[in-house]
Amino acid sequence: MSTAASKEKLRIDKYLWSIRIYKTRSLAAEACEKGRVKLQGSAVKPSRTVHIGDEYEMRTEARKWIIKVTGLLDHRVPYTEAILNYTDLTPPEEIEVKRESTSFHTGKRLSKIGRPTKKERRDLDGFMDDDTEAAE
């Protein structure tokens, strides 16, 4: 636990960034402004003060989170330390559904479906050239 955070007020955007829910502090502030971070069902502003015991509900691109604050952090720390400062209360079924949907829309082509790869195209061209020579 940071001693500086216990003496000062800690903003929610800085806290969410420090526990690695959002990649940047500006993304955390933007999520608050767009109403994606809620305390007891109501949206919070980025300047809201965080207190131990608060339960926040938030949405990121990857998944929905429900966390309970167990410690205050005012700077970014490694993941192994960050997870000690909150408790993840998200139901497992919501985590699985989100994980499934994000992997489905990755934009990557499934194997053996769609356009041929460069190697497959070369093989096809070589195969097609051999056929035309045999027909003559």
TrEMBL record:
SMART domains linked: S4
Biological processes per GO annotation: cellular response to heat
Compositionally skewed regions (Basic residues) per UniProt: 106-119
CDD domains reported in the protein's UniProt record: S4
GO molecular function, a single term: ribosomal large subunit binding
Gene3D superfamilies to which the protein is assigned, alphabetical: RNA-binding S4 domain
Cited SUPFAM superfamilies: Alpha-L RNA-binding motif
Region (Disordered) location: 98-136
Domain of life according to the entry: Bacteria
Keywords (A to Z) from UniProt: DNA-binding, RNA-binding
Segments of skewed composition (Acidic residues): 126-136
Domain RNA-binding S4: 10-71
Pfam families, A to Z: S4
UniProt similarity note: Belongs to the HSP15 family.
Protein name: Heat-shock protein 15
Gene: hslR
